[in-house]
## 1
Amino acid sequence: MNMKIHLLSIALLALASCSSQQSANNPVLSIEGGQIQGVVSNDPAVLVYKGVPYAAAPVGDLRWKAPQAVSPWEGVKIADKWGAAAMQNSGKATGDFYFKEFYADGDPEFSEDCLYLNVWTPADAVGQPDKKLPVAMWIHGGAYDHGYGYEITMDGDAWAKRGVILVTINYRVGIFGFLAHPDLIAEDAKNAPGNYGTLDQIAALKWIKNNIAQFGGDPSNITILGQSAGAASIKNLVMSPLSKKLISHAIIQSGGGIDEQVLPEQSLNEFAIDCKAFMDENGLTDVAKMRAASADDLLKFFNNKPQQLRFRPHYDSVNIPYGFTAATFDGTIANVPYMIGYCANDNPTMGAGVQRFATERKKQHAKPVYTYLFARPLPGDNAGSFHSSELWFMFHTLDRAWRPFTEADYVLADKMTDAWTNFAKTGDPNNPGTADWKAYDPETDFTYVFDVE
């Protein structure tokens, strides 16, 4: 009996020691809104903080308003659950091919209460501001009407293991994120009405600046990156006077470069007039009725909108003063290193736009631009190197895919994750001591090709 008590005591002491060690590696942090604690990720050396609110819920009177300060909570928030994704259609609505590729596991919770972010960081950096690890903020794609920050391709373990804190965000999309209306403009002209989704992204970037030191991050070394509509968002953030000074490096994935000429775009006021007519047709003739409508009804209206009514960022006098092309030629975009590229089976016009962007930056003697082409035809079908196919590799999440990836694919994923995280650290995608990936120069026209060959 005494032996059993002795063994039980040893076991309890071991458990207490383990719990104490876990607590020491996972301290309670004080951030905007209150106290928070993360959970061990799939890799035990990484802590993940899921569903961290970075702004107040944009519901009720806050629908179609600029993001407000996060609502405080009581006690310690255990960040072990993803925050709801922005209101949007089911993943099934994105088409059979992409449904099988990215959405076959089903939909997350959708809600207007969606302004949450997620943080992956090395466990030994948490609570140590002196660590000053580089930080990267990921903006998801989805044509500005769907997507969220924890899709099946997206994970930060491989980044944190390489010494980079990864933050992924949700932001308002579709009619909830990009509706303009004359009455909304009159209500709050100084806060870029109609570009709420972009303002959400800027609020998340500012949250990182103000809070990431608690997670071991360096608020003066923030890389922003995104793909597709996320890449277009990066192009907005590097020229916005509200955000460009917060950025150290930028990665633009499958979002094109610059056009040969500045194309005319519909102004915010013109878009607002079209939106008012659309809302009037649906019986929402004033702002009070618009804010009283249910989120489900608004989504139904959005699904039946005229094709020419496109809910996306528009130029305004506060946040997005003019287009990326004009800002590039003017030299008013953030003067930081850029990494920009596309997939081999993307829109065929992307290559020329990327080349023009890199050439113009070189002419201006700006900081370097690194261009790439993702050329690996994914195994399992004949889809090739399709739009979004690189996500499996740069997040190193091949094991989540249905595809029969080979050992060579995992080697390629290592190479790409190294390049992306190296760039986040220093603005140079090369491994230390190497220079295989040369900055773009029109005289050599060098673009790095990622493939298994």
## 2
Amino acid sequence: MSEPALEIESLSLSIRGQSILSDVSARIGAGETWSIIGANGAGKSTLLKCLMRIHTGWTGHVRLHGQSVADLSQRELARRIAYVPQPGGDQRFPYTVREFVRMGRFAWSGPFGTAHPGDADAIESAMKRADVEVFSDRALGTLSGGERQKVFIAAALAQGSDMLMLDEPTAFLDYRHQAEVAEIVHALNVENGATILSVTHDVNAAMLTGGHALALRGGEVVWTGPTGELACERILGLIFGATFRFLDDPVTGLRLVAPQGARTPS
């Protein structure tokens, strides 16, 4: 494993006396891709929000390149980690695409919100990379869910961080937009060496992404390892408490996963 970009040690969170995360530990190498997987309610999104300090009150230790996140201001944290929230919901943003992407530069602004010399280049580069230039002057609320998700990613890219955390980035998106989002994130990892943490409940998506997986069940880590090892009845049963069938993909050579009740087309 490469040098750790992120170390999570015994992270636990309780809300109103209910344990949400319990003793979560992981060591994420710089430039690695990790999928955080598990069933609905396993604590995946909550873990990301703890790492971003959206949720507070957790116990344990989190270190970013060896430095405790507790010692970082929110602005310093935003310079190092970019966060893309889950798509969907009743999100109303009275901004154009360019205005929204510009907000991703807040961590670099000077006193009283003055512009940073690198803002213009960072904004243009982020919009180009996320392929949202064509509707840069449109209101965010006029875009489709897939288009809007690419704008959220552009805003995250504009932050200039070397770590990207995504919460179900392709949920509710059609297949074309799922592929586009996956390509953007993959290129950021391969070309820029960015460290990627992505929440998903889709085992096939995690295996196709590659890299490593951290599996949660009931707020606890039940398995970690290379995503290629996920196509195993024992491991998936441990993570999801269900039974599965396996289908060989002739293109990728991977064993893809289907619920036991799924039918094979005749």
## 3
Amino acid sequence: MNAKHYFDNAADTWDDRFQTPKLLSFLENLVPQFDLKTGQHVLDAGTGTGVLIPHLTKAVGSSGSVTAIDFSEKMVQKCKTKYSRFKNVTIKVGNIEDAAFPPESFDAAICFGVFPHLENKEKALQNINTMLKPDGKLVIAHALSSKELKAHHQKVSEHVAYSTMLKKTEMIQLLKQTGFVEFHIKDEPGCYLCVARKTSKP
């Protein structure tokens, strides 16, 4: 079983297991730190069952939009049952490592809880960079620190045991290689937050 099959199998019980009042309170405080603006177009990469969607749509308003993708068909099905009624939300199966969106489609790309599971992180960031508008924002976040995340994945399943966050120096190097600047990384108990910006056109 690979990671995709793991998440397909976990989709039906995912919300019951993980969408706790603690997590929802955490997101209420986390998403404003993304500093999204009304009218922006946002990519929710690795949306899962869509836990971020209500927060993102609130941030961008009715004039903005959210495109939510996930590589797990079962997760996407679950997400659609909850949020397909949102007029400014598009939900589809897709993998950010090979997702095909036109260049400069989004003002921001959010990777919440997904980055450790990407097999080719460099390719994913290259794709995101291409899809972001000049000065577009990249956000990589998790409700655990990198240390807590490693311990959690080793405990929860062998199929995600090696899904870890990069060390800070490695993350900065990878961001530089893929065309991002102005890195801000917070890695503390109960929260990992990395924000970077795509370079503007010369």
## 4
Amino acid sequence: MNDLIDGVRIEGSCKIGGHDIYDANVDVIELRKRVGMVFQKSNPFPKSIYENVAYGLRLHGKQSKSELDDLIEQSLRGAALWDEVKDRLHSSALGLSGGQQQRLCIARAIAIKPEIILMDEPASALDPLATARVEDLILELKKNFTIVIVTHNMQQAARVSDFTAFFYLGELIEFGATTKIFTSPAQKRTEDYVTGRFG
């Protein structure tokens, strides 16, 4: 996402299926199909609820109205939003609450069936009820998708993740099963962070 920004420096590698996504031969369009993104601040398009979810599907060749209708319903159901919006699919997505907008962004991300979903602080701007709904949704979605979440909320990480990586100032300090990281971390810096001694 940063390739075209002047002065950006990328070090190291990021591999999916053994292939570095920064390799010059990587098809960026194909990569974006394989990896869905949900940002910290919900970012619905200034379009209808229906068109928000249809956008990526159309980019990937889905044109039939009946096929779009089915996939949009599946995606909204998958994001636990269908029952709340099924009677107003052609209303503006900007009229949804913050929590609904974030679940719409999740529906948009899962519509094209990516292998991986990246979530950057997906509940940090939400109230506790909306946060609980997003966390319940993550627990359901992880049955079908690999989900990578960036969060500073230790309780959230403990609730929704199977594995946890602790980074400090850009350095990977420790990685392991979430229960081990939170109950018996191998590194003192990890223990200090998860117990609230710093951070």
